[in-house]
Write a structure and sequence with these properties.
The chain is mainly alpha-helical and 197 residues long. It is built from six helices and two strands; from the N terminus they run E-E-H-H-H-H-H-H. Keywords: Membrane, Transmembrane, Transmembrane helix.
């Protein structure tokens, strides 16, 4: 009959393993070679050190990067959507009434929101009239230029196989929000008539 020994494996949670071991040979005799049975591989040997459960395993190899066409597909789709919107605004003049809905804030209170004049500015920008676009809504022109720069950086990084990271952090976002707030307040004051669309 096989004798039983109990070993404790150390780790985050102690685990007791009972292993059935063959009887020890008498002193002076070499142990007989035994053929391994099906269950032998799962048994813990008495003279082998315990393997901790947090032992490092070989990490899987990273997947190869997708082809250039797939990396550029999202950027091309975004450019197509923005180009379609600009083409529509360039073709349908927002200065003529009835084509676009009116700003609800301006209609109900008579105050200009930060986006008032944005469609007129985009229309002027499509037709190459930068001064009129800046006069209609300067933040929209700045946003269009910022979009163009970020899109170009995105395409270059995607073509080179580098990840696109756009993480400005909280400070620039707060500064941008403060600038938009100041712009909105000043354009609604009596001396801010030069910012009216």
């Amino acid at each position: 009959m096989a004798s039983f020994r109990t070993r404790v494996l150390t780790g985050p949670v102690p685990v007791r393993v009972r292993a059935a071991l063959p009887p020890r040979p008498p002193a002076g005799r070499a142990p007989r070679a035994r053929s391994r049975g099906v269950g032998e591989a799962a048994r813990v040997k008495a003279d082998s050190p315990p393997v901790p459960c947090w032992a490092p395993r070989s990490l899987p190899r990273p997947a190869p990067p997708p082809p250039v066409r797939r990396r550029l597909a999202v950027a091309a789709g975004l450019l197509a959507a923005a180009g379609g919107a600009f083409a529509y605004v360039g073709a349908v003049d927002p200065n003529e009434p009835g084509h676009y809905p009116a700003c609800p804030l301006y209609r109900s209170t008579g105050l200009y929101c930060p986006g008032c004049g944005g469609l007129r500015g985009a229309h002027a920008l499509v037709h190459g009239d930068l001064l009129t676009a800046l006069r209609d809504n300067a933040p929209v022109v700045a946003a269009c230029l910022g979009f163009a720069v970020l899109w170009a950086v995105w395409v270059v990084r995607a073509a080179r196989g580098r990840p696109v990271r756009i993480d400005p952090g909280p400070a620039p976002l707060w500064a941008l929000g403060a600038l938009l707030l100041v712009f909105t307040v000043v354009r609604n004051l009596p001396f801010g008539g030069w910012l009216h669309p």
